Automatic annotation (TrEMBL):
Pfam families: DUF1462 (PF07315). InterPro entries: DUF1462, Thioredoxin-like_sf, YuzD-like_sp. This is Disulfide oxidoreductase. It comes from Virgibacillus necropolis. It comes from the Bacteria.
Length: 109
C-alpha cells in the first residue's frame, strides 16, 4: 500500500434518511464502521472523516457532493473509500472490506 493512508468518508445527517427508517443514524454508522474496520485491519493505515450534510462545507469536493445528495435524493449515510462510493443507505461491511482489500490495507495479525 505504500505510505498513503486510505480515507473512509461518511456523509450523513443527524436526522435519519426518510427511506432508511429503522436503520442506524449516520453518526452511529460512522462510529460502528471505525470499530468494525479496526477489528479487521491495522487502524493506523485508515483515516475517517464524517461530513454532516446539513452544515456548510469548506472543502469544494464535499460541498459539491452534498449538493449531489440533495439533487439526486441519495440515501444516506453514504460511504466512500478514498474516491470510490462503496455504500448508500444501509452499508454492507463486505463491500467496504472489499474496497479496503483493493487498496491493500494490512490485516490485523
Amino acid at each position: 500500500m505504500g505510505n498513503e493512508k486510505v480515507v473512509i468518508t461518511v456523509y450523513g445527517a443527524e436526522q435519519i434518511c426518510a427511506s432508511c427508517v429503522g436503520a442506524p443514524g449516520s453518526k452511529d454508522t460512522y462510529e460502528w464502521l471505525q470499530a468494525a474496520v479496526g477489528r479487521k485491519y491495522i487502524d493506523g493505515d485508515v483515516d475517517y472523516t464524517y461530513i454532516n450534510i446539513n452544515e456548510s462545507q469548506t472543502k469544494e469536493k464535499h460541498a459539491e457532493f452534498v449538493e449531489r445528495i440533495f439533487a439526486e435524493d441519495l440515501f444516506y449515510p453514504i460511504i466512500f473509500v478514498n474516491e470510490e462510493m462503496v455504500a448508500e443507505g444501509i452499508p454492507r461491511l463486505k463491500t467496504i472490506y472489499q474496497a479496503l482489500d483493493k487498496h491493500e490495507v494490512p490485516l490485523q495479525s
